[in-house]
Amino acid sequence: MASDIAVRGATVDDVDLLHRFSIDLATYEDEPDAVTSTPQTLARDGFGADPKFAALIAERADKPVGFALYTFNYSVWTAARGIFIEDIWVVPEERRNGVARALMVALAKECMAKDYRRIDLNVLDWNPARGFYEKIGFKWIRNWLPYRLSGEALQKLATGS
Ligand SMILES: CC(C)(COP(=O)(O)OP(=O)(O)OC[C@H]1O[C@@H](n2cnc3c(N)ncnc32)[C@H](O)[C@@H]1OP(=O)(O)O)[C@@H](O)C(=O)NCCC(=O)NCCS
């Protein structure tokens, strides 16, 4: 039942859980080796003096059943910050019970409270999670394509070689 779900902010004591859930999501997305962060880097980067991300944990009967990990962006056009969801994951046995909706409601409330104007995310084209996003009101922005500069190409542009 959705009313059994509690959502709370993650703390430094949750870094092992955040790390495990991140690996579960990467494995689901066919990139089991993509997570090179560790619980230690999560503690450093999420819960130090200058946090680079924040996270919410959903629990049922005090047992963690899902999480959302997010960063912040800023629009110069609207002079407002927004949330970018890096990871959202619900353990398979708890899906379709309102857990991810509860996480998204908490994020939407944070936006309302802090005057953040939007929530963005990327989703793989094959992922049925698209149905979830569309169900709760996300729109697919069809005329924008994600581009990235990283690895050797980034180094090459920086060094000219
Ligand atoms: C996508 C995911 C987070 C959804 O979590 P969930 O807890 O099952 O979602 P909820 O139960 O809160 O669903 C909310 C609504 O979306 C609908 N929904 C959920 N998953 C859906 C799907 N795959 N397709 C269509 N609708 C879906 C639900 O039916 C529900 O509708 P309702 O409110 O009318 O009943 C979960 O399936 C998951 O962890 N998937 C694997 C990880 C993943 O893909 N993460 C996203 C990476 S971009």
TrEMBL record:
The record's SUPFAM superfamilies line, in alphabetical order, gives: Acyl-CoA N-acyltransferases (Nat)
Q: Which GO terms describe its molecular function?
A: N-acetyltransferase activity
Q: Which residues form the N-acetyltransferase domain?
A: 5-159
Pfam families according to UniProt: Acetyltransf_1 (PF00583)
* Record key words, sorted: Acyltransferase, Transferase
Q: Does the keyword Transcription apply?
A: no
Stated family: Belongs to the acetyltransferase family.
State the protein's name.
Acetyltransferase (GNAT) family protein
**Lineage summary:** Bacteria, Pseudomonadati, Pseudomonadota, Alphaproteobacteria, Hyphomicrobiales
